[in-house]
Design a protein that fits this description.
The protein has 235 residues and is α/β, with parallel strands linked by helices. It is built from 8 helices and 10 strands.
Length: 235
């Protein structure tokens, strides 16, 4: 199981959002850090096939990002995921299951399982427009897990979650990282410090740090600020 990002760039007119990034991701949890405008979301959208790279290639086990088979292994939670406010949580998951080609019995079983997993079973038949921000985010996490994705891309997944929910989510991600590749981007450095096997740091569209993380290195937030600061000094 390997995601290969090879010399990937994305340019918008005069701005280079992602600049020649090469990295190989294998089973486990990767925490992606970077300031606003560093290129994190652009990179994740290219990994999910939503944006086309200006140059370079992206593949999962030699399946190109543009191929239909690639979508079947992908789960994605964007920073602002789209939903239908008049749908119930259950209806939304059944609808998303149908888009993934699941049969009705499979979809019903999986929707119930995921609603339980994200503690929304009691709100399954309530309309999404009545959900709190945290509840909507948990529903977004549930839809990203449909189809048991081998590659899971999460952009600010803990936004809107209270501290208790964040801990629950971190535990869930830990388990998912045992069987899949999880790329997690967040501004909450402690979330990454608690669960990431490998830390990735982006600045100005480039990957400036990539390494395993352990407590012997100290506090991740201090380390992250130091890395950004050193890069800024170099410039």
């Amino acid at each position: 199981m390997e995601l290969v990002i090879d010399k990937v760039s994305k340019q918008y007119k005069n701005k280079i959002a992602v600049d020649r990034i090469s990295v190989k991701l294998q089973k486990g949890i990767y925490g992606l850090l970077g300031e606003n405008g560093a290129g994190k979301t652009t990179l994740m959208r290219m990994i999910c096939g939503i944006l086309t790279p200006s140059s370079g290639t992206i593949s999962f086990d030699k399946i190109d990002v543009r191929e239909e088979d690639y979508r079947s292994i992908l789960g994605y939670l964007p920073q602002d995921f789209g939903y239908y406010p008049e749908f119930t949580g259950q209806d939304f998951l059944l609808y998303m299951s149908a888009l993934k080609g699941m049969t009705k019995p499979q979809a019903k079983r999986k929707a119930a399982e995921l609603l339980q997993l994200v503690s929304l079973q009691d709100a399954a038949k309530k309309k999404i427009k009545t959900y709190s921000g945290g509840m909507k985010q948990r529903l977004g996490i549930a839809q990203a897990l449909l189809g048991q994705p081998k590659l899971l891309v999460l952009d600010e997944p803990t936004a809107g979650l209270d501290p208790k929910e964040r801990v629950r989510f971190r535990n869930l991600i830990k388990d998912l990282g045992k069987e899949s590749i999880v790329l997690l981007s967040t501004h909450i450095v402690s979330d990454i410090e608690h669960i990431a096997d490998t830390v990735l740091i982006m600045k100005n569209g480039q990957l400036i740090y990539q390494n395993k993380w352990d407590e012997d290195k100290g506090n991740l937030e201090d380390f992250y600020i130091q890395q950004i600061g050193e890069e800024a000094d170099d410039e």
